[in-house]
Amino acid sequence: MEWRRRHVLGLADFSPEEIQFVVDTAKSMEEVLTRDIKKVPALRGKTVVNLFFEASTRTRTSFEIAGKRLSADVVNFSFSSSSAAKGESLLDTAKNIDAMKPNILVMRHPASGASQHEPGRTLPGRTRVVHGYDDRPGGRGVLPGLRAGSQEPRPPVLRRVQHR
């Protein structure tokens, strides 16, 4: 299967084949994590910006390590040291970062669904947006949501999509 999505904002519109592709790709990374050098060139020459509007340790670090293991140049954006802290809107912040031409923008925002409603749908450039996390009850990021339960033969999210 060839990946054709521009953004990864949620699982609701993923086909079972797309979810299986992501799960299979994640499984192939398990072997990489057993190596002395835990890197593959998948994102060599690409820039990933982690745009986090709230404090995070595990989620931000997970995305940072993942980007580096895929050989990307990773930039971590902190709300407290940005123009957003002075009142710049989420969309303006995302557009300013998009103007710098990163390849991927991973976003976590305290407003539920923020990455789906603003930058994920309206960025003018070629930046791909990944929804990093959602603080709704039971909510989580798209990719961690796929990873959860992956020790089972069929991750829970895959079972739900297959039974639609």
The CATH class label is Alpha Beta
Order of helices and strands: HEHEHEHHEHH
**Sheet with the most strands, sense and barrel status:** 4 strands, parallel
Beta-strand percent range: 5-15%
Radius of gyration: 16 Å
CATH topology: Rossmann fold
* Spatial strand order of the main sheet: 2-1-3-4
* General form: globular
The total tally of domains equals 1
**What is the number of beta strands?**
4
- Spans where pLDDT lies below 50 across 5 or more residues: 148-164
Which range best describes the helical content: under 10%, 10-25%, 25-40%, 40-55%, 55-70% or over 70%? 25-40%
User: With helices defined by DSSP (H or I, 4 residues minimum), what is the helix count?
Assistant: 7
Helix/sheet category:
alpha/beta
The first-to-last residue Cα distance is 21 Å
Q: What name goes with the CATH superfamily?
A: Aspartate/ornithine carbamoyltransferase
- Provide the residue-averaged pLDDT: 78
CATH hierarchy: architecture? 3-Layer(aba) Sandwich
Question: Can you give keywords for this protein?
Answer:
164 residues, alpha/beta, Rossmann fold, 4-stranded parallel beta sheet, 4 strands, 37% helix
Notes on the protein architecture:
By secondary structure, this protein is an alpha/beta fold. It has a single domain, classed as Aspartate/ornithine carbamoyltransferase (Rossmann fold). Helices cover about 35% and strands about 15% of the residues. It is built from 7 helices and 4 strands; from the N terminus they run H-E-H-E-H-E-H-H-E-H-H. Strand 1, helix 2 and strand 2 (about 75-80) form a beta-alpha-beta unit.
